[in-house]
């Protein structure tokens, strides 16, 4: 038997090919992928052949690092999982031995192997395939009744849950807080859903597209502002040195970061979630307003926390998955994912 894979050979050269059916090694299971989400990094690999100058696609790579599926086979020694069980897949595999892993900061592992990543050679092959053999420890059971599409949001939700962790480290709580989210893509929308879940009293979301802002509204935003057409509406939040207690900057755009700094109150907190290159920052405002500007990177224990949230169905997540296409249409799905005027989260589905 063989499986279908979506393998990227170079810039805008994504091919649906086949590989032999995998067998589980000791400690592994085989998972039939049900749904896999297209992430911003997948889009960068596809459209630009890499991310920046440092991470380049140097050999064919099966992309995709957001997935959930059903276990079809167990390797020797696997306990606690069963054939037929639905699981979310954690793409993160830290080494456990480097200085960061020894300190419990696994998200900063110096030897991280991350599914679908071109960071190292050979590249780490990803999830866009019918079936995959993967370590049992990377499988997190999904509750009965949870749609596969929502289960496949576990990885991006974990990224956003890590952003919440970082905010709580400084702000203590989101309960009753006024929150700004800049950027209404998948990460922005998931930050909105989490901010609502953690008790924010007001959640204002900005973006350039009405379609993505509509999704943000569906998952918990109290107000949305299209800054392309109504940017002046933000001026009211700049008055008296700023309005918001916490901002999640998810757009990776310099104007959005500047806006977040202007709209955040003195001694408030901005969590930079979106990854941007060298960017001018108005440090005079950061200093004079004593704003906490903090970063957030991937996740660690937050993956399990994200799965738990999905299992309890405590948040509205369905609107975030705007399109689902079969693996045969992987190229169409990738092109659609690049159109932010139409799509938020695009997923590839498997028989």
TrEMBL record:
Keyword Zinc assigned: yes
Span of domain Enoyl reductase (ER): 10-345
The protein's required cofactors: Zn(2+)
A single MF term (Gene Ontology): zinc ion binding
Record keywords, A-Z: Metal-binding, NAD, Oxidoreductase, Zinc
PROSITE patterns per record: ADH_ZINC
One Pfam family of this chain: ADH_zinc_N
SUPFAM superfamilies hit by this protein: GroES-like, NAD(P)-binding Rossmann-fold domains
Family membership noted in the UniProt record: Belongs to the zinc-containing alcohol dehydrogenase family.
Name recorded for this polypeptide: Alcohol dehydrogenase catalytic domain-containing protein
């Amino acid at each position: 038997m063989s499986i279908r894979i979506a393998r990227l050979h170079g810039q805008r050269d994504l091919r649906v090919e086949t590989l032999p059916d995998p067998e589980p090694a000791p400690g592994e299971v085989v998972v039939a992928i049900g749904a896999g989400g297209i992430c911003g990094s997948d889009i960068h690999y596809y459209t630009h052949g890499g991310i920046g100058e440092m991470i380049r696609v140097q050999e064919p790579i099966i992309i995709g690092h957001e997935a959930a599926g059903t276990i079809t086979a167990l390797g020797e020694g696997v306990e606690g999982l069963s054939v037929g069980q639905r699981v979310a897949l954690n793409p993160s595999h830290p080494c456990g031995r480097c200085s960061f892993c020894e300190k419990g900061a696994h998200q900063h592992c110096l030897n991280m192997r991350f599914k679908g990543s071109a960071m190292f050679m050979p590249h780490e092959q990803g999830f866009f395939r019918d079936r995959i053999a993967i370590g049992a420890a990377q499988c997190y059971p999904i509750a009965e009744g949870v749609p596969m599409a929502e289960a496949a949001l576990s990885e991006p939700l974990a990224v956003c849950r890590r952003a919440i962790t970082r905010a709580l480290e400084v702000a203590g709580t989101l309960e009753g807080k006024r929150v700004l989210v800049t950027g209404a893509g998948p990460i922005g929308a998931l930050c909105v859903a989490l901010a609502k879940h953690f008790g924010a009293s007001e959640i204002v979301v900005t973006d350039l597209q009405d379609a993505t802002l509509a999704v943000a509204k569906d998952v918990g935003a109290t107000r949305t502002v299209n800054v392309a057409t109504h940017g002046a509406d933000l001026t009211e939040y700049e008055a008296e040195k700023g309005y918001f207690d916490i901002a999640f900057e998810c757009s990776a755009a310099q104007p959005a970061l500047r806006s977040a700094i202007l709209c955040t109150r003195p001694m408030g907190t901005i969590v930079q979630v979106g990854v941007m290159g060298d960017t001018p920052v108005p440090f005079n405002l950061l200093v004079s307003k004593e704003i906490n500007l903090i970063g957030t990177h991937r996740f660690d224990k937050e993956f399990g926390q994200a799965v738990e949230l999905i299992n309890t169905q405590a948040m509205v997540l369905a609107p975030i998955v705007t399109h689902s296409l079969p693996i045969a249409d992987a190229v169409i799905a990738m092109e659609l994912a690049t159109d932010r005027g139409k799509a938020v989260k695009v997923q590839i589905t498997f028989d």
